[in-house]
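quick one, two chains, predict together pls
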Amino acid sequence: MSFKEFQNQSRLYVIGALESEELEEFEKARKKFGKKAEDYISECYGLHEAFALSLQPAKASTAIKDRLMAMVRARKET
Amino acid sequence: MGSNLISSTGGKGRKRVRVPKSRAERFSVAPPLETGAPTDLELMKAIQAEDPDALSQLYDRYNGILKALILRVIHNEAEADDLLQEIFMEIWNQAKNFSSQKGKPLGWMVTLARRRAIDGLRKKQAYARAEERLQNETEQQPEAWVHNATEEEIVLSDTRSLIRKVISGLPPAQQQAIDLAFFRGMSQREIAAKTNTPLGTVKTRLELGLKKIYDGLKELRGEL
């Protein structure tokens, strides 16, 4: 697999769209390209951020934050 | 490795935090923060040091984005609220596993939220119900709450409209394939079956669409 092909596969990989037979080849190439591959995969995860930011934010119930913070403070005290 | 100098003002005046510069950070399209607000990375470090106030600030900053993501996956308001709470609890519990070397806090949180939402969807076997709701919804997500936009929301809205512009530039079939893969957690084979499209065509749509978005976002980064 060339690095250009690896780049194509990386974008599929980060959204979980590689099929199992492709995943095996991808992991081999990932090892072969080493740090360059890891850097590129990290960069591709920026797609997650972008897809989330493309959505209209939704308002959560105000009770959610109160419950969350109560749980966190209780967890911290134990 | 180089570094960025990020200025931030805390309660005791201006401070400068040296943050390693990574490729992932350069690619990020996160909206800019208000002057003086702690960065996401500073909040994550405080959460790692078990500061609940930092989690509270991170929640205020991103609950809307993460809930929108969860809703897009599971299409149920009450379940989305419950899941949002669980996800922020997981952020608190798993903060020690976050590494700025691997990306930005928002990317990490979105990845975690997406995984939990898709797991939730599968566990509850809500596919059928979500299918029905999805078909009843328009392509555009409805306004979730009517409220006056703050300055931060306006900046975020600019970011969103630019990202949406990139995505909407794709042919509908490519948008659909990416939407099903990312927001529904579908494999290429599942997408092929659902859309009655040959597997090779689905793969090509995903590859072309993702490359266009990726390239578009890199250009967009310069505009934000």
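Residues 46 and 54 of chain B are 6 Å apart (CA to CA).
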